[in-house]
């Protein structure tokens, strides 16, 4: 613990001392004080010390004894999702909901949240399209304009630039990968 925080030669110093993580003065100077805290707070040889808030240092109010499984769910890179009114890691939601973690991860990346995220595997659910998708970058009106301009043979880049979106989004619309539910009546655009 002290080595990671104060020894610049420690291979993990950059993730601890290098970013301001320190050991409280009491523990740093008095091993007996640390030992007493450890014994009174669940020390077990199968557990290691864990900082509750990863941006704060080692101190009695920010440390606990945790299993490797608990620690893996308390990393700064762990995704936290709202489930039944509380925030959990995706792995915890998988355990609580019974939905496999890889499926939850795929659904989360696709923009699904709430009940859609934890619906049972195989349950039919209409895919979020257009503006119902929380990750939508454009409105149905803009999608229609893009489709009309594509029908007039305007370039993908000029359309993307005028709407302030990526050329990849416009290209996906052109290829029919997204906004499929928006149709263009070609009689309107062939003037």
Describe this structure in words.
The structure is a single chain. This protein has helices at residues 2-6, 25-29, 31-40, 68-72, 90-97, 101-109, 114-118, 140-151, 156-163, 167-174, 186-189, and strands at residues 48-51, 63-66, 80-83, 86-89. A hairpin with a 2-residue loop joins strand 3 and strand 4. By secondary structure, it is mostly helical. The chain is elongated, with a radius of gyration of 26 Å.
User: What percent of the residues sit in helical stretches (DSSP H or I)?
Assistant: 40-55%
Given the helix and strand composition, which structural class is it?
Answer: mainly alpha
**Which stretches are low in confidence, meaning pLDDT under 50 for 5 or more residues running?**
187-191
Strand content is 5-15%
- End-to-end C-alpha gap: 74 Å
Number of helices in the DSSP assignment: 11
Widest sheet, order of strands: 1-2
Global mean pLDDT = 86
**Radius of gyration (Å):** 26 Å
Topology:
Elements: H1 2-6, H2 25-29, H3 31-40, E1 48-51, E2 63-66, H4 68-72, E3 80-83, E4 86-89, H5 90-97, H6 101-109, H7 114-118, H8 140-151, H9 156-163, H10 167-174, H11 186-189
Antiparallel strand pairs: 1-2, 3-4
Helix pairs in contact: 8-9, 9-10
Characteristic key phrases:
two-stranded antiparallel sheet; 191 residues; two-stranded antiparallel ribbon; single chain; mainly alpha; 8% strand
